[in-house]
Fold each of these.
Amino acid sequence: MLVSYNWLKDFVKLQVEPHALAEKITRTGVEIAEVKHPATGLKKLVAGHVLNCIKLEGTHLHQCMVDVGEAEPIQIICGAPNVATDEMVIVALHGARIAGNEKIKRGKIRGIVSNGMICGLQEIGFSDSVVPVKYRDGIFVFPKGSNIQPGEDVYHALGMDDYLLDFDITPNRADTLSMEGAAYEVGAIIDQPVKVEPVNLKADGSDWTSTLTAAVDAKLAPKFYLRKVTGVKIVESPLWLQTRLWNAGIRPVNNVVDVTNYIMLLTGQPMHAYDARTFKTGKLSVRLAKPDETLTLLNEKEVALDPADIVITDGNQPVMLAGVMGGLNSEVMPDSHEVILEAAVFDGTLVRKSALRHANRTEASSRFEKGINWDNTQKALDMAALLLRNEASATILDGVLKGSDTGRKPVMVKTTFSYLNKVLGTTLTADQVVALFNRLNFETQVARDQLTVAVPARRWDITIPAHLVEEVGRLYGYDNLKSKQPLLAETQGGYANFELFMRHVKHFLQGQGLMEALSYSLTSKARATLFTKAVQPVAEVKMPLNSSRSVMRQNLLTGLVDAASYNFARKETELAFFEQGRTYDHADGQFNEHEHVATLYSGHVYRNNWEHDEAPVDFYFVKGQLENLFTALGLTDIEYRAEEIAGMHPTRTAGIYVQGDYVGFIGMVSHALTQTEKPLRNSELYGYELDLEQLSHYLPTSTQAKPAPKFPAMSRDLSVLVDQSQSNQSVMAAIRQAAGHYLVKLSVIDVYQGEHLAAGKKSLAYQLTFLNEKATLTDDLVNEKMAAVTTALETKLQASVR
Amino acid sequence: MDLLEKLDQLRGRGLEKINAAADTQKLNDVRVELVGKKGALTEILHAMREVAPERRRQVGQLVNEVRDLFNEQLAQARYDLAQALVAQKLAAEKIDVTLPGKRLSLGAKHPVYLILDDLEALFIGLGYQVVQGPEIETDHYCFEMMNLPKDHPARDMQETFYIDNENLLRSQTSGDQARVLEKHDFSQGPLKMVGPGKVYRRDDDDATHSHQFMQMEGLVMDRNVSMSDLKGTLEMIAKHLFGADRETRLRPSYFPFTEPSVEMDVSCFNCDGKGCSICKETGWIEVLGAGMVHPNVLENAGIDSNVYGGFAFGLGLDRFAILKYGVDDIRDFYTNDVRFLAQFRQEEK
Ligand SMILES: [Zn+2]
């Protein structure tokens, strides 16, 4: 809410300038997002009296003689449709500055001298949303009887010399969404008394309450009060009233509507005015809407009502969406004479949901949603009636019709001074604390350490001792609190073991030259279950923002492929990404999260390369990177099995098994996927994904040091001719098994298949390294082992050994 | 010809030949020719019989002198040739050291994780445990236990991604608080934890909104933890991240799970508090929210709020990264553009 500094002065003595006040309020109560001063940047804008106005033939222009308080009237050419003789208008003189820092100069329009400009409100900085409709497409005309003379600056009369404090409230401080509430808050902050006047209404007419029956569901509207005024003359509001509204961001409409809005600004109680002709049948009800009911709102939006919307009806059809906006069918019209005023308390949650449902939040609905002062219903109703007597010549009929009237018990909160001091870390005395509550106008009772605070209804946010801590803390000043560190028993900080393991993996991959990516967990249903060996039921959100972010991923690789596509589209094709994060599923009826890591590579091994060593990243490069990771983690007994996984190349992908258990996969992203993703077309992407939880089960627990070998190792090479279908892994397994425990290293040194070999055969060459840690190996022993290997290969794999 | 004359000629011719030898092979030939077993000097010695006995001594002396001279000059020539060879080899091996090196890909940490790791290190040093909770959270832990009533706006389908009526993508890391509070045994000492992780809100992605981002929750709980302790802790966090010369201020705020609640602002690092577009002319930038844990949260977790109390804070890690590194679009953290990600390496600590 925009709170007027000048209006505040009606309630509190302000000896602090607006910006300093804003800073104090921000630090003590409610954040002041901004202090607006509408006159800022404007110059030489004065009131002018149009003495004579002639339409220029064949144009839309008017030639005006305007009294601007100088010896002679000045001539201004004005194109506004509503300029006319005898109007009091806003004149930008020669040398004036208007909105947008635009300078106005004397000039000629169609050869005729114009000594300035007659302005509309938008031209001097008003937002379109607050300009009264009749001035929206033309110049502003001061209402008759406005207290302003030709030549006088317009800023004061238009409220532009004011400072407007933008109260950016938190949901608990809706009590400041009114001038009275803001005044109480400001008074407490600057320690000044606040004067809020009570209302004394004497009705002019007879009792009207028997002419209407109001059937109100008190659950929907705990309080529902009505008053009736007659003899109303609908006119434009006086300028003082209009300025207060537009300075608060509300568009003036007519005196009746403006009064209801003004009372809302003043008291925080939303008001509504009905044309009394709405209730011809003498019936009114407050109920939930029925299915299929519709209502056209004042803003001409037709809404299909929901059975959770509260409506006010004329006994038959809805005439208002309660707490949100009136219906067009009950609107106060220029010919309205009898008006029914409503002040009510509606269920905040239902109002909020209505406003949200129909995308129609209003000043009223936002107040009901956050809560209003239950003690202000009567006062608001009476003040509105009184103002209509003044500004609309209304006759106030006697009696308030109370459709419902639920009371609220006064709130008493008990606490102790020692509790307040303990939580705040202060040493305030009872007198100091009581003085702070006095500033809030809260009554207190003290009995030794005990403190009882009577909380007025205007502060419905305060119900428990912790709330009192806040009141004391903020008014004492958070700036005045000591700043210290908790002095507690020592605790040991750190990570859980699994967290340490994940951090090790991340650091390793980063050191290996991979860039850390961060992707969205939500993806499309199709992508969520790609790159997944055992697809589980998915975790899918109910109302996704779009279908490509609707399901929680079961793999990380999909995010990295997205990243690759994004980068490829920007000609960045040398990529090495890793991501560590979770995957999510709904297996076995519960929601599960698994920590994974994935990598994705594309391009070349070397990044800048004038030596033309253009080795592309391929399966074996990536596998080497992965093998190094496994070595660094101390993982052994790893097996790769050719396997098909959705999204991966069917003949270039392997499942990874540790001690026989599946932990992830490695391979190339399928052509089927890269060919359909335009930027990735014809690219080769390689990567792997590991389930870190699974992996963590096989980590070595501790390291026992061994001395470096003291005896020499012996190496032998071996060439094996096998069927092409035979995998290296099976050959190696056979060698290992036969070679015995002196075999410490087995490496592939050559792979050949081609014209020099029989069809369907391939040749694999290995180097075997033998070592006895306790003695020097003999040739005989090694020869014996090599012979055993040869026999094993020949018999088990039908290989021929050379 | 007189033997002495011959010797004199040999000396002159020999020195010329040594000088003229262009490589070690030729030099060796010269050596054999001059001082070898069948060389010129040996020849002269063989001719000594023709010399009168009284002059033999003189001639013998001269022969020795010439041999010494030849050997000395041969050694020098051999050395010079070797030196020249080395120089030639080195010249041939010369490379252009200004050409660039051959580089493998270079790793980098994601900027949001830079902030996360930096903060975790800070808190671990202060004795906080790092705790991780589920991202698919129950309504119970995310909201009910955290004192957000059933009709609280955050519990709207519009605001939070619900999976079903009971399960949702957590919109805040606060659920970790509730889980830890339920489990903590205060007889084992105070509770100090931070809980970092991903959170999700039903916001359309734009420059300042992201449906996914990272938060870090902090919680300190014991018998005597005050708002002064909170203030000191928050100031330390702010100064650690944004510099010791930053001013800070606490403002009253509102969160359902803390009471009192505050937000902390730091003086704008762009304009130093004078007011600019980054701080929306206020001179201050909001960096975090915090407060004293609401008694209802404690009671919900079965903790006596008359005995125990403490503070909690929530840090927006993406927001910190945005502020610290001057990022103007939060989506940059999630598109994984390598050109963007490559610029933060020097921030690693
Ligand atoms: Zn700034």
Amino acid sequence: MKENKNIDHELGNIIDRNPTTRREFLKRLGGGITILFLFGDPLVLEAQRRTSEYPDDFNAYLRIGVDGIVTCFSGKIEMGQAVITSLAQMLAEELDVSLSSVDMVMGDTDICPYDRGTFGSRSIKYFGPALRAAAAEARAVLIELAAEYLKISKDRLITKEGIIFDKSQNKNQVTYAQLAKGKIIERHLKEKATLKAVSEFTIIGKPVLRSDSLEKVTGKAKFAGDIRLPDMLHARILRPPAHDAKLKNVDTSPAEKIDGVQIVRDGDLIAVLHKNPDEAEKALIQVKAQFDLPEVKVDDKTIFKHLINAAGEGDIVASGGNLQNGEKLSSTVFEEMYLNSYVAHAPIETHTAVAKIENDKATVWVSTQGPFRVKEQVARVLGFPSQNVRVITPFVGGGFGGKNSSNQALEAARLAKLTGKPVQVAWSRAEEFFYDTFRPAAVVKIKSGITNSGKIALWDYNVYFAGERGSQQFYDVPHHQTVVTGGWGGGPGSHPFPTGAWRAPAVNTNTFARESHIDIMASKAGIDPLEFRLKNLTNERMKRVLRAAAEKFGWTPKKAPGGRGWGIVCVDYLNTYVAAAAEVEVDKKNGNVQVKRVVCAQDMGIVINPEGARMQIEGCITMGLGYALTEEIHFKGGEIFDLNFDTYEISRFSWLPKIETILIDNPELAPQGCGEPAITCMGGLIANAIYDATGARLFQLPMTPERIKEAMKNN
Amino acid sequence: MQETISFNLNDKPIHLTVDSERMLLWVLRSDLGLTGTKYGCGEAFCGACTVLVNNKAVRSCQFPVKDVKGKEVITIEGLSKNGKLHPIQEAFIKHDALQCGFCTPGMILNACSLLYENPQPTQSEIIQGMNDNLCRCGAHTRIVQAIQDAANEMKGGRVK
Ligand code: FES
Ligand code: FES
């Protein structure tokens, strides 16, 4: 096997791991006291950050104020996934403070621990353990300090809600706040602090409402575009009509005549600035530009053929047995191809940034999923040392992977430098669509076989340009191979515009293909699709989620198509297991699909906030209706035709099925991810249900009414 | 054309001298600093910019400021009264009816308008009435529940 060039880099190949200075952190918080002192040697800390994902010093994660408020620092950002609440729960649990006493500071590169970015359902799974360990150590250290303060043995001390007291004499007590006094705590444990056992949890695992609601329902919540600075200008930037178009000539003079307008030209960057964004926009329309368009090589119809042709040699990422033997064992062999179109992230908040440069220091407020990476990029584009750049991430209005890339911040930074004023760049909806790093168009080819008794004997899986994640099947198949060609970032000669990670990257495509194909085999074998799956699974955890979903759904066995419009699927998303069952209604005249009901069971190990988890699953199901049924970017070469929500249709209230969620109790397993897994069900789930309703099999996402009518005709 | 426009904004009289063809959204966000009203699409497709004009939801990205002359404009910042949240805001909190929160101000004000016209809507009337407000995070089910709940709470009483 060759070196794997398809590693799932959520960020493409730019992963910056440069640490940040602590100076500003200390300045802001005011360090140094008796029991407590300044931070460790910055160089040591830097080295530590380079080698490990998260710092060891618990002070990097939390700070106990004189008022008893515990500030939690996380390099993660809040874009709707409610980690602002679940991370606070993890901290409160281990530190033993009330949840309401925790304040979250997120995504500020000057004061939060370095983080690669918020993506891949990793916040709870990977940052969570570091945060819990920090809180547990802080609590243990506070007990030591309390023992000295109260002059009693630490074995006699217990903690509750930020107070340490003598077990036998309640009144003999001291608070965390009294001990920490808002300062950095010098002392550390020699050994690792013990974490609480699941049975001891009083905050983790309890459903709590999200903590940012009040700000968000009153309009007080600040997003990047809500930052207002004195003398700030709004920039609108001249854009090409197509990707790779070259500017031939430009005339900015009519725009220059407009009152209050400033024009900036710096190489490829031509911007119109005004104190009001709408007036900048009006002036931009006056800028006359001509572009040379590149030759059109591909469009939304020819793209799949093009991709297959562009594909190099793939990598075998899984294999077992021998494919020829598998074919020999098979009584029926199946060969199918599955396609999915380009899909946009389309967060309601467009990419936005505000940059301010004072002397040699830049501060940038950015709607981004990767503040630390933006910091390095801004430093590079400005020619500043990276410690002179601070990125602050206000609330982010949806990301879904689209805000891993944050070029708007570089544009704002450049313009702030060029104008000497704070500059806001807020992409228009058209820019948001045009510059999206789309979920790639992709192709999956599967050849499989079953024995007379309905056992899968052969599985030969080839995926092109979706990505590796979720490509490996989990059924009990003796002879199998999975080959992955091209990742979701594409590569030279593949896509006509940038592509990238889209909520549960690769796995939406891979699950659609696999679970559709499993159904095709089940139907041919004359076996109920649930039964067929159970029969071909040995993984007990997977069987359990399947059964849980089926039971709540009220599944009864019937071979498909059974005319009921029922579908079922299961998926392993980075060790979160999901199964879903659905009922759809298909209007056979016009091909319209109404999803009536979705039951979704998820096993993600220990659940931090059941309410938050359910909210994420519901969000996944609702958002996933879009890529399953309507979402598709139409294009010709580098020209994008879908530039607003009129032609690019995302889920609406009237599409809503009844959604029921089941959280599988699995305290044995550490918390896994939750923000993405359930969305991966939606393509296959609806495809299977449509088949059950109509007998027509859909091989391409989205399953538009036209494609459904077409499939019914060919049926 | 520069013009002085007088209207009531969040229960306070206001006089503005602006180019009256400009869209209300930008006047609110830039000139008046009321950033709770959001830009989502600029073409009346998403509802993120929804505000109330005389208790009716309008899309401020396509609503020239000259059209608010002499009218009552309520933005998300003006919905709570004397520090007390509007029942719809309360219900959104209680039901976790939001995720990223970017569509939320528009959702809440559209719901206000809906309940003003139809104080006791059925579930399908709520769905119908909210259908043109987009939410990418998928908070829809909870938004419907929240509006239902708020309607019951308000018991048909017209709480503005
Ligand atoms: S911004 Fe006005 S409707 Fe979308
Ligand atoms: S909550 Fe994010 S768009 Fe609705």
Amino acid sequence: MSETPTPATGSPRGSWPLYEIFVRGKRGLNHVHVGSLRAADDRMALLNARDLYTRRNEGVSIWAVRSTDIAASAPDEKDPFFAPSGDKVYRHPTFYDIPEDVPHI
Amino acid sequence: MTETEAPGADALQEYFDATIARDQRVEPRDWMPEGYRKTLIRQIAQHAHSEIIGMQPEGDWITRAPSLRRKSILFAKVQDEAGHGLYLYSAAETLGADRDDLTERLITGRQKYSSIFNYPTPTFADVGVIGWFVDGAAICNQVPLCRSSYGPYARAMVRVCKEESFHQRQGYELLMTMMSGTEGQRAMVQDAVDRWWWPSLMMFGPPDDNSPNSERSMAWKIKRHSNDELRQRFVDMTVPQAEHLGVTLPDPELRWNEERGRYDFGTPDYAELMRVISGDGPCNAERVTRRRTAHEDGAWVREAAAAHAAKHTARHTGPDRTEAAA
Ligand SMILES: [Fe+2]
Ligand SMILES: [Fe+2]
């Protein structure tokens, strides 16, 4: 649930680090971010993630990643970071006019 | 922490307002007004605390449940509530709240939790009635919160709502079983219904004309419906269930209103609600003390785990990493 490393309030009183949890729902699917949790180490993060996010068979595989290890783009969706993809309509199949009677395309 | 001067405060506010107006979600690192952030932290923290304290009234019955079946169900239900608390604490952390600080505020009584969990559970029928009423009321509250404007809160609610349905159904089923039992069991169910009905209606908070923060929360789309509207929905949903079960809801004013197409019902004792919220309910002190004791008794476990983790990390620089290929 934390999406991104939380602002500097990390662990002022020596509490456990924050982990982001990704779950593969079933074979053939990507791991998807499901939320976050705190754990002392990687192993505990996986065990806690199992108990917290897969109590009803929601997953066949779990990744636990320390929130501080995630590199994130700037939060603002207007950010020029995404500008390169904004004006390239030719990357989409609908850009191309193909006559109706050409099959399978 | 996100109060930035750089791009112009007006532009940021405008962008935020537009996001809300377009019914889009606000995400953790977006700029947001401090009032929005504070309101959310308060609401999510109280919600999280309610889930955590909410384990206690039913938890008392885990060792005394009358069968292995009921024991397993109750165990799973109470474990879910712990999970709900954790989803919500995580959501609060995305707003910059500190987990330790939230716990501290709960056990020192500086942050509230739902009034309902300050009532006692003297009989096993209470377990059934809590599932039926309290989780039922929670569903009324939480389903609209799945569309709350703050992304992590809304997503936590989606997860929670998926689990609440089991909570409500196991409670109702338990009561159906008792109602088909002895005279004494039926009386026990009715007694629990009599005790929990009004406190359950109070769960929706003060009436709209006395709910100062409601309007702003609704403008921000944190909340989608008023307290009174949600209370009405709960009554409309519950009355037919009560009839089916064969119990009487303890409200002489309760009747179907043909014109409105909804039930009319009496007014909860809001003075009682205020008393319980301000700390003077039947079990407030007991609940908070128990939470504090559990936290303090667990300190050595947390320290040992941290020490073990430190030692382990010192020994191998990279503990077993999964090959993380997408
Ligand atoms: Fe819950
Ligand atoms: Fe529940």
Amino acid sequence: MSKSLVYESGLGSLLAGLSFEKEPQWLADLRAKGNELHNKMGVPTPRNEEWKYTPLRSLASVNWQSGEPGPAVFSQDPTNYAETAIRVFLVNGRFDRNLSEVPATAGLTCMSLRDAIYEKSEVADYLGSVAKIEDHTFAALNSACFVDGLFIHLKAGAMVEPVIEVIHVTSGDEMVIAPRILVVAEENSSAKIIEQYVSDGESKNLTIPVTEVILRKHANVEHVRLQDESETSYNVSLWETLQDESSEYRAYNVAFGAGLGRLDQNIYLNGRNIVTRLDGVVVARGEQILDNHTKLDHAMPDCNSFEIYKQIIDDKATVVFNGKIFVHQDAQKTDAKQTNQALLLSPDATINSKPQLEIFADDVKCTHGATVGQIEDTFRFYMRSRGIPKAEADAILVYAFAAEVLELISDEVVRERLEKRLYKKLGIDFTV
Amino acid sequence: MLEIKNLHAIVAEDDKEILRGINLSVKPGEVHAIMGPNGSGKSTLANILAGREDYEITQGSITYLDEDLADMEPEERAHKGVFLAFQYPVEIPGVSNTYFLRAAVNAKRTANGESEMSSMEFMKFIREKVKLLGLKEDLLTRSVNEGFSGGEKKRNEIFQMAVLEPTLCVLDETDSGLDIDALQTVAAGVNALRSEGRSFVIVTHYQRLLNYIVPDFVHILMDGRIVKSGDKSLALELEEKGYGWLDDLAASK
Ligand SMILES: Nc1ncnc2c1ncn2[C@@H]1O[C@H](COP(=O)(O)OP(=O)(O)OP(=O)(O)O)[C@@H](O)[C@H]1O
Ligand SMILES: [Mg+2]
């Protein structure tokens, strides 16, 4: 890569302060590879097409530290973030035993990734098997320097009823936090997972999570991700999922937080009869820049994928959507639908949206549509004529726009929490 | 209750004059019917009463309960009891009828210094209204007007009116597109709401509605002016003769 495409970055030097002695060889190899790749790719400038709208200059100039060596403390009431039976807190990327609660559940392993590396043989098989770190400099960095994270394993046939709540807390300033999440759902297993990324107060960190998800045959997983960090934070994430035959994966990306948030979410449909949802709700205000790159990779026949992205942009915020759908030659009878809608609430708000369909099979149904709009006056007047004040009418209309996606989430507790967060973000304070 | 004097109004966008000197006086408890050919300005008048911003008043005044209505925001008018049943009700995807109405009722209560209704109270309150109007309960959970048939939309307008309990009800062609049963339901809904303190301005093309909702006055609006007023027999006369015989009257005004 030519020098002009990267910023000078102090990120690589982070590694100097970290020591990973006595780790298994496979992990040492992964770290070495990550290190090498990150050093090669650096921090991309906007001249790099994939990072065109994600300005990383300010990020490159921070004097980043690696996450505190000892466990950081979370000062908030944890029950504000989790209310169901299985809850896991990762504070600055480290599994927190005091805050977490994982009751014994048939077929479920939910534990510190660090511990799992030594105790569970599956980790060696799966970790790094899905995430393509050669395409993602921050995921490469994560591989080189992650200290801990989470390992979720569902045994074949395990049906985990309560939703697994994962809260990633970042606290402190100018730290790079690199949680690593590995989810493996064996054949015929099912579970619901919500990951929330939150800040302890106005922390100013760079979070670079890598989440790898593997669904074996007939597995069924609902996976919600709420990105809700402070607007002084940076979050650059890679989330990749590999699906086997007849599995169903419903992924919802809810992006409200971080000053600069970038997610690359890729799903590989690697067997027949797969069902995939990849939906997003993005709300950006102030000067936030939220950039979501999604990819659905159809490798095999008879699969359906649905993607709805709803984006609400106010003030001077910028939202980027890049939606790739690849349908490979073998993937006949693919049915892929992509919809991408943006609602602009201010004349200074910006949306850059780019659907990118590449289809190499001939017998497929692929559609995509993108719309950009504003709040319609006829809707607004109708509501006002019933007594609903203008600001509230607007908030309700905006809410309804986003709710179309949130309503798809099957877990009621999760859905209601997200709806409440959406209300708060939009400044509405009433519910029915 | 409502006093309209020499009202002239234009379309704000293109300065086209639509209302050209309307005079109308509505007292508490009265029912006024407004009839007139397509494009004569009936909906414009109704929308101006509700506060639509597409129009600009160039002359004259609208006084409602001794206040200048023209100065009020649409929501303020609603809080003070003005209600418009739209000729073309708006579909709002994603907002349930219940949610919508509770927001409306509580906004009105708050504006009038009353406490908000709790979710439970409100549900009880609207279920009664649903029953009163002989509607189906699933109406409550459905999105406002979304996918409703023409007739269902009109019934929903009357339902909203029953819930909001307004003082001045303006109905713009609520009877258009209704089957005979629905027409009777709507009329019964209106009649149930008739009271000494509540007035109605009903825009309609058909005398038929006025058999069920008997008006105190009938006005004929042509080309932006009321050219003739009378009692309910005027509607019968119109039904028989059409509008042609009034052309000279309209031209001479
Ligand atoms: N917002 C607007 N912009 C442009 N023209 C308008 C607007 N509103 C009304 N008009 C015009 O003003 C005239 C009166 O319209 P209005 O809708 O008030 O008629 P109406 O009496 O309600 O007719 P109908 O019986 O068909 O409902 C029409 O010529 C219409 O095209
Ligand atoms: Mg009309």
